[in-house]
Amino acid sequence: MSKHDEARRKFLVGAAAGAGAIASATVVPQALAKSHEHHKTAAAGDPAAPAHMHSGGEGHGAFFNDDNAATVAAFAERLMPGAPNMPGARDADVINYIDLALAGAYADQQDFYRRGLAQLDDYCRSTYKQSFAQLDAAKQDAVITALEGGKATGFTYPTAQAFFNTLRTHTMEGMFADPVYGGNKDFAGWRLVGFPGAQPVFTEADMQSKEAFTHAPMIGLQAQAKAPSRRT
After folding, report:
1. What does the domain layout of the chain look like in residue ranges?
2. Given a cut of 80, is residue 1 above it in pLDDT?
3. Which among 6, 23, 59, 107 is placed 20 to 30 Å from 91, CA to CA?
4. Residue 83: beta bridge partners?
């Protein structure tokens, strides 16, 4: 992993750990949870339902086509690159999170993504004669740097910086939000920041400790929902 990759990972991980809410169950609007439950229910009741409608399913298909999914997945991976023993955006299935979000709670941003991805493709082809997903890592980083600095040409709506900022935000959400929303596969993001999940009980010592909570397995909202209720 290059120093550039390490710096980018440290920024996103540090932002997640510092914000706290990024790793919490409330980072995503409640509408997204309802949308996810709708997809899950439809899939369970319809044998012909597409694979992306299954809870925790990998990939895309709720909103993105194959080409757009490849672009967003590659973009997210450059923002949060994986390395040995250090999961990245692909490992956490960030593309699945963004895909489901745009088919649900973030449906108002569908046009934003369509236009942004089209402008990104035009910029990459005019500059490098290839789509973003086809570029090597160094050129992808150069494109992302141009977007972040507002120097990528051909962007009107959304602006280059707005598109970069939105993709970065959604990558962080897909990396660190509760897995019930489609990302953070196998708690990849939570393991990076030492977040234990939606634990039902913390002792006073746990609350005061500055060390990572390691006394119980990580628990997400889906596991909580399946847990039997206690009667007093």
Report:
1. 3-226
2. no
3. 107
4. 86
